[in-house]
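My main concern about presentation is that the manuscript never shows what a single data entry looks like. Each protein is reduced to its one-letter sequence and a matching series of backbone shape codes. For the editor and my fellow referees, an illustration may be useful. For illustration, here is how one protein appears when written out as sequence plus structure tokens:
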Amino acid sequence: MTQVLSVSATTAGYITDTLRPVQKGSRPNYVEQINKQIEAKKDIAKAEGITRSAIATLKDTTAIGLHFMRAGEQKMPRASLEETKKAYRESEDLAEEQA
């Protein structure tokens, strides 16, 4: 008993491609590429650090500026409802007297 096996040329090509060793890139190119990636990450980290410190400084100066802008303000005491009605009556009475 004999079994005949046939394989197409395309299938044989796929099989031989998987059996070949993977070709690696040259070592200097790989190292150069990794160095570029590291430098890019360092640049991004520096930019983020500058941005964070600038935002923190901006927050601090804004708070200080607002504090000094409000420093001269005098807080008006709140009046009760009865005091407010009395003040309106007095102002109406003065207006009628002057008229």
In short: The chain has a mean pLDDT of 77. The radius of gyration is 42 Å.
